Amino acid sequence: MSTAWQDEVAAETRNGGRISDHFIVDKVRTAVLTQRLPPGTRLPEVALGEIFGVSRSVVRRAMTRLAADHVVTQRPNQVARVRAPSVEETRETFDARRLVEGEVVALLAGRLPKAQLDAIDELIEREARAYAHGNEAERIEHSLAIHHLLAEHSPNRVLGSMLTDLILRSSIVIALYKRAGLASCYLAEDHPALLVHLRSGDGEAARHCIHQHLEALEGLLDLGTREAHIDLMAILGQGESVTS
Where in the sequence is the signal peptide annotated (predicted)? Predict the structure, then answer.
């Protein structure tokens, strides 16, 4: 398994940098978004402290921030875990995202500058290449970048902020409930079709497109309970394994 995270930590240390709670938050959030840290994964303070070379107090601050962002669950006297949303919350998350993102793309249609449209086009190409090469983590990163770009440029900043939160929540539930044996949730035609409507200025077509996209994603899920077993050290660093 890739040790890219450990390489980044080592580089940060070599350059005289100090690993902060912000650094840990970013790395854990990225791993959750790219489905390398599945829901239910235990995140022990001692193990994370050893991986990142920081004190437990730094790890604790990071876990507090991640809990506030709905990435992890913290309970008194228990090890923090990556959140594992219920089936009901999963359905509610997709319902909410359809409403919010549908409105965002309808507002953006015909209003995005050429630079942003070209950026989406490039991300679509990168997503397709990553899928073709079997790099699922990279494909997810490019797919998420498309939706985050839409949230970032939303004419309604409140809706944009809500969409950013829902993108994260959606990624977590997809990681939890993706059908066993399904290598990828890639929907090859959806993002190109959305880009066509954003360029043309057809807001209702863009809204319909994003609704179909999210309904298709939800249709790929198996809404049954499953338990995550993950080698935390293999994801975040090197050395002895720390399993959930």
Answer: none
